[in-house]
Q: What sequence folds into this?
């Protein structure tokens, strides 16, 4: 399936202007061509994007057109730098109902730092995002790596949850809200049908929480990438399956809890 020329032009324009001024509310998202359909009674899906890469902004009209929301885990120290989302783009995503979460100050492996540096990476990142008027309750460990000290730092800095990777699906509520397990990373050759099978298999195995981890949105620009067309198909499929009982929520919506005050490192 090829994307309509008008949609491609719209997406590129939105990414370039980066201010949310393009009228996307009435964008018509093409319907994914799939016969795969199930009845879902026990499965919740969360869409998460790591790092705050600029190409993540391509999915904004898709999420809006399918009425889905995602969690964007942001490295606040990279905001506005080349190839990363800027503040106005993050504000536009947030205004649409998406969640903004923390992902450290500089995308460092938290298992390799300790003490004051560890707390600065986690707490300062959250303080930055809170200062930008985001309600920040969710965190993701860079590379999925953490140890007991990193887990405790996330708690001490006021987060309600922390997401790791690759051992999902997770239960609801999770056994450990600070070690939430996601589905395997989405990589450049992860097909649309494989993503739908992940969701269907969770339901078939008794249900649970299927958390998807995306990084880049592009056609093969990075090993950890998803083609825009593939994401479009998957988002449309998820939207359609809601009538069959599938629930799509942000991480913060699943975990719940109040927004705690920021903590100085």
A:
């Amino acid at each position: 399936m090829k994307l309509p020329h008008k949609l491609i032009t719209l997406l590129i324009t939105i990414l370039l202007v980066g201010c949310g001024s393009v009228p996307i509310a009435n964008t018509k998202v093409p319907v994914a061509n799939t016969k795969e359909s199930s009845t879902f009674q026990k499965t919740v899906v969360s869409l998460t994007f790591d790092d705050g890469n600029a190409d993540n902004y391509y999915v904004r009209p898709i999420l809006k057109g399918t009425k889905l929301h995602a969690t964007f885990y942001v490295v606040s120290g990279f905001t506005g730098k080349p190839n990363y989302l800027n503040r106005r783009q993050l504000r536009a995503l947030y205004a649409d109902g998406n969640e903004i979460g923390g992902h450290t100050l500089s995308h460092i492996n938290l298992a390799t730092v300790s003490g004051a540096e560890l707390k600065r990476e986690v707490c300062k990142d959250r303080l930055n995002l809170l200062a930008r008027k985001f309600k920040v309750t969710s965190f993701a460990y860079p590379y999925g790596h953490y140890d007991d000290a990193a887990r405790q730092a996330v708690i001490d800095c006021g987060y309600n949850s922390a997401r790791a990777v690759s051992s999902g699906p997770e239960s609801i509520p999770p056994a450990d809200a600070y070690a939430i397990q996601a589905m395997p990373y989405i990589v450049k050759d992860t097909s649309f049908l494989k993503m739908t099978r992940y969701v269907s298999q969770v339901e078939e195995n008794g249900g649970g929480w299927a958390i998807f981890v995306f990084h880049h949105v592009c056609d093969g620009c990075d090993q950890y990438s998803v083609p825009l067309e593939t994401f479009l198909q998957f988002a449309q499929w998820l939207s359609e399956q809601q009538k069959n009982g599938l629930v799509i929520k942000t991480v913060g919506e699943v975990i719940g809890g109040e927004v705690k005050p920021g903590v100085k490192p």
Summary: DSSP finds eight helices and nine strands in the chain. Residues 42-255 form a domain with the TIM Barrel fold (CATH 3.20.20.370). The radius of gyration is 18 Å.
